[in-house]
Amino acid sequence: MYRSVPALALTTAVLLSCGPGGKGGTKTTPVPDLPAEPVELPAIPSRIETATSQPTDGDTPSARSPVLDVMSAENKRWMDVLAKANDPAYYLAYQLVEQRVVSMDAEGGAIIGDSDDTDRILDVEIRVGTPELDNTRPISGDDNELNAPLRRRAVAPFGNDKLALANHLWLETDRRYREGVLALAYVRQDQRTLGKREAPPDFAAGKKETYIATPAALVFDKATWVARLKRCSERAFRGVATRGSCGLLFTQNTAWLVNSEGTQTQLSWTTAQISVSVGVKADDGQGLGRLEQAFAQTPSGLPDDAGVDKMIDAVTKDLDALHKAPLADPYVGPAILEGRAAGVFFHEVFGHRIEGHRQKDETSGKTFSSYIGKDIMPAWLSVFDDPTLTTLNGQQLNGFYRFDDEGVRAQRVDLVKDGKLVDFLMGRNPIAVSPASNGHGRKQAGFDPVARQGNLVVTSTRSVERADLEKMLLEEVKRQGRPYGMVFTDISGGFTNTSAFAPQAFKVEPVMAYRLYPDGRRELVRGIDIGGTPLVALQSIRAASREVETFNGVCGAESGWVPVSASAPSLLVEKIEVEKSFIPADRPPVLDAPSIRKGGVR
Amino acid sequence: MKRHVHLLAAAAVLASVTPAAAKKVPPVGPPSKAITEEIIDAIAEEMDRALARLELPGAPKPFHISYKITEVEVNDAVASLGHVTNKKHRHFVNLECRVRVQHDGVDNGNFVVPGGEAIDGSAGISLSLEATPRIARRAAWLVTDTAYKEALIQLRAKLDARAAGGVKAGIPPWTTEAPVVGEEPVLVAPLESLDDVIARAEKISAVFRDDPTIRESHVAFTSYLERRWYLTTEGTSVNDTRRASGVMIVAHGQAADGQELAQYFTRYGRTADDLPGDAELEREARTLGANIAALAEAPRLDAYTGPVLFQGQAAAGVVRFGLAPNLGGTPLPEGINPADAKLFGGALTDRVGLKVVAPSLTIVDDPTIGVSAGRSVIGGYKIDDEGVAAQRVEVVKAGMLTNLLTSRTPASASARSNGHARRTFRGGAFHGSATNLIVTAKGGVAAAALKKKLLGEVRAAGLTSGLVIRQFDDAAVTATTELARRELIQIAVNTNQALPPPTLLAYRVTLDGKEQLVRGAQLAELPIKAWKDLLAVGNTPTVANYLASTESQIEHRIDGVDEGFVPSSGIESSVTTPDLLFKELDVVPSTIGLRARPLVPPPSSK
Lengths: 602, 606
Prior knowledge:
The structure holds 2 protein chains of 2 kinds. The longest helix of chain A has 33 residues, at 162-194. Chain A contains 7 helices and 25 strands. Chain A is α+β, with helices and mostly antiparallel strands. In chain A, helix 1 crosses helix 2 (162-194) and helix 3 packs parallel to helix 4. Chain A has helices at 66-82, 162-194, 222-236, 305-324, 339-349, 466-480, 534-539, and strands at residues 10-13, 50-52, 89-107, 110-130, 133-134, 154-155, 210-212, 243-259, 264-281, 287-296, 331-337, 381-385, 389-392, 395-396, 413-417, 420-421, 441-442, 450-451, 455-460, 485-497, 506-516, 522-525, 528-532, 541-557, 560-580. In chain A, a hairpin with a 2-residue loop joins strand 4 (110-130) and strand 5 (133-134). The two termini of chain A are 38 Å apart. By secondary structure, chain B is of the alpha+beta class. Chain B folds into 2 domains: 5-196 and 223-243, no CATH class; 298-589, no CATH class. In chain B, strands 1, 2, 3, 4, 5, 6, 7, 8 and 9 form a 9-stranded mixed sheet that branches. In chain B, strands 10, 19, 20, 21, 22, 23 and 26 form a 7-stranded mixed sheet that branches. Chain B starts with a helix and ends in a 17-residue tail after the last strand. At the A-B interface, helix 1, strand 4, strand 6 and helix 2 of A face helix 2, strand 2, strand 3, helix 3 and helix 10 of B.
């Protein structure tokens, strides 16, 4: 399958291969004290204007596909038998995703990749046992996940033919049921071995939902886009770049879901994405790259050539500057995380740790499990996740969806209210404090769903103008006796460890990092990562800007890649820790580059 | 074309492979639009610049640089029960560079870096789909630089390994070969369209609708074209084009005791004209269905030791799995781990000049042919994967091993490549390998006489029945995604990788000549010496084209066939052989693939 490189790898490390073995369990990390004398901030909230679309908006029953009838009939045929079997199944869900992916890439003015593929991917989820204890319960010592469901990329035929579709549903249901029966036997044996242990149920019931979307159509003129990509990539190949490419990714998706609770949904949407990417190797061997992307619901919503030129200007200027920039030294001190960087920071440092299933996983560090109702960040900050948001401050949000991949309505969830933790992101894997799903069970086709972020939004009831934030940074530099403060304007992604067997640390990778000196001079530096621990980092936030920016991207975790957004004001952080990043032992090409001019040879 | 003028005088000008077309001469398609003379010139200029100037301080310069440009176009379709499940058009161009460096007579080649199998002195990069010389040169610059740095690491590791483990003295690191020039485009028939392969896959797959004995079935068609260009600092500048079309029909069922059953039919040819027509394919599909139904009722075989007759596709299979891997003359790569070394083959490397098979057999490997025994074969090429001209090689003459299939990695000081280097092994090592392998025999007899000989041997051995095998499994074709994780673990634990694949069609033959289909017949190890005890051969050759996989059968079983595809992945190969009667082989019963039957019957259109 051809896929473009994901926009941004917001990854999370989940060491599921490690059993509890006495090492897990909730650690009660003390909440760091808030500063004794908080900085006075104007009681003016950050500017956020949003638009939403409710899950049932646009329901069009007349657009129902016969595919849903085949799926529900096969689901019923199986459940009529399995519900009464020796090892009864209590839940069966089918999701069939048809996805057309149009991908083109150009380098230096020429097309190097051109594909247009359509696949149908079938996922079957079956629960054998009871909601209190079923085949999905992790067992102790299962380091190699032998008892976990085996994901296989089941295919299904195109079209609506009843026999062909039903046969593939039947095959995968049979495999999943056999697997579930085998797994449940090990689960029961494990329970007998472990003795009585209090644990939340394995599954939360959902209510019956019905929704039919009109099939979305992907409309674009290929010749026009080929010409635009060539133009883009020719212009991107300048300055110090040894790689200059432009890519587009258009998708047309239809997802049908039925389950044994009676839910039947047909969702359909298109996406469009254009990217400009440049790269070069620094003299010390560090690979330098800059990537700008734009997202839209349709190809026509993407930037025009003038907009793309701005993206090219941004990445090529940044790359040239990075190539000349010095390597930075480790640093601890005040810093500003500008809007998009602050969004990514929250996604990594906070968002992944608030995903509900991590609160019950014996191998997870459960950073926030015991903090419901407690202060975890300044009282003027709140955080919510709302997949029903379509735009924020006029910008389209990537994390919009109507129903999650478990057939539950997308819902806004207040996660932090006035600095206090109030809830978690939940799929249908319940925890003691959140026994039901709040519509965040998400996955990529071919994976099993877990709780994931959608549109994460950080709001502030107190804020300052962006320019004032910089003044506050310099005051903090002076107060702490530092030679300079740091400003991060772009973060490419990160890594956060949620395993109980390692420190609950995060590391994010800033692409554009500046030293801001007391005289106002800015100096770009490279070769650093931001590290730290989440509770300390969140408590270190001292001020927020009025302007809110949005990062759009895709996020990879155990349930695959899902589209997300993260919106936040720029943030002043009292103390941030900067580490040297790994730079491989390498060097730029031995020979000078040959000319890329027509007919030119250096 | 200004490149390599200084070397052309020594170059052997290569003639195109002349396919003696079996049927009609198909129309030829256009030459590549992506790779033109200007692209080759641009890469050649960068190659010359690199050879002259590429050098890191204190490190050896490259003494040899080679490029392989590969342009692939494929139309694939898979259908099940009359409806397509996958369809793909692929078109891409890749530039691969290999750099060789040496120090004190040791070069970086044929060495597996422990823990760093990917470090092999090569690097690859995508080229544009439309000819853009300045971008091609830029790509050559980057890929050569990367390959050079890798080659230096590989050489360092090899020198360290030799220092620790001793030096093999007297054998040069690789052979010197005459450069090859053949720059005229090799034009081949155009691809069948994606719509065509979809339509045929849907039509043939519909045969299995409403057949209650079939759990799963699918039909795949492929149309495949691979253009290659080789360019080396020795002066080679040559191009070649490989073209293949194929069909694969697969059906699975389940016996009453739960054992999984599989049947398949594959055919490959140079174009779709070489494949059976729709009516014949529908008949073959129905035959697979009938075989599944019969196997579902068939008894399991008990342990058996005695004469075994391999007929048709199984005769080709026993040559493919039991003989072909041992004909390579490439020495084991240094640094290879013992487990991989077992799979590398080469059991006959020290047996040249000795009798290795029955004296009636003569074996030839010929990559220069397009037709064998009247059928198109797909294992041929003009140049091998190291840019050496293809050569016909007589491997066995009247039972005596006369030659091995060699690459440019010599096993002795006098060894030369005979144009059989293929990347049939994981990692970057080239391996002297079979291409179009042809087994002929004196004294071949008709099928009925051969069966009579089998029964005579059965009687002489005091047995009550003999065994006829007509098909081996090929997990690259039949592996399913139907198994649960713990079921796969059982298969992995219980499968002996040293054995040939399980049989799919095996018959117990009683002394009265009656045949009874049996399940679960698994050949025990097939030692090379068993080939000396060949009792008789048939007089009608079977031609089998197949795609050799670099993965083992067990790896395919565990991974499953990706999205139902198979047909265009693998190394084009063929075997031509008569039926083969072995004096005595051990066959053991196999219970692999047992699982619970479904609680719900398969759906029906009725």
